[in-house]
Amino acid sequence: MTSKRPEGGVLVVSASPHPRSRPDWLGDHLRALLAHRGHPTAHTRVRDLPATALLLADTGHRDLRAALADAEGAAGIVFVTPIYRAAYAGLLKVFLDVLPRHGLRDKAVLPVGVGGSPAHLLALDYALRPVLQAMAARHVVRGHFVHDRDLPLDGAPGAGVLAGLAVAADTLSAALVPLPAEV
How far apart are CA 162 and CA 65, in angstroms? Predict the structure, then answer.
């Protein structure tokens, strides 16, 4: 579920229905990279939230309420999703649906996808980005895509994958500049 609330930091949300998944690995790795850059972090795995509460949008449920509070308190959010049939995962859609309409206001957002075809890269820009922008994200940084073959479940990813993730973490980190104080 969710670890320590990242007040003013970064919440990583991974939306794979499978334990021990590539999106979870990516989420954990990005969380470590961002923590190394000095950002408080937490990781929410949507599959660990209560399914009935998610599907019924029962925001009064304790666990779902806590996950939504983590998202509200974060300055940045990383959404990590498997790409299925040229679209982001349904689990991510359900989570986005329970966030408030402008639940990403004043946040920097990094979309990350993993899929079996280079064509799936387009899902980040054509399916996910418009939703994130409609939810009033302050800045949706350039998404990052990793091909399944480059992220083995039983071994270490190559240097290219690790370098790409470091660039994605740097890009989000740079976007997490403090907002100007209201006068």
Answer: 34
* Mean pLDDT for the stretch of residues 40-64: 96
User: What tokens appear for 20 in the block?
Assistant: 């021990």
Report pLDDT for 165: 96
Q: Model pTM?
A: 0.92
| Domain ranges (residues) in the chain | 18-175
Residues 90, 141: Cα–Cα separation, whole Å: 22
Among the listed ranges 40-44, 120-124, 131-135, which one has the minimum average pLDDT value?
120-124
Residue 61, CB-side half-sphere exposure with 13 Å CA sphere:
15
Look at residue 55 and give its three-state secondary structure. Answer: helix
What pLDDT, on the 0 to 100 scale, is given for residue 19? 87
d(CA 97, CA 74): 18
Q: Within 10 A of 70 (CB to CB), how many other CB atoms are there?
A: 23
Place of tokens 């974060």: 74
The CA-based angle 94-161-81, given to 5 degrees, is 5
Q: Distance (Å, rounded) from C-alpha 142 to C-alpha 161?
A: 16
In CATH, what number does 18-175 get? Answer: 3.40.50.360
Measuring CA to CA, how many Å separate 118 from each of 49, 84, 150? Answer: 30, 12, 11
Task: Name the band, by pLDDT with cuts 50, 70 and 90, for residue 4.
Answer: low
Residue 95: both structure tokens together: 């989570």
What is the Cα–Cα distance from 37 to 45, expressed in whole angstroms?
A: 22
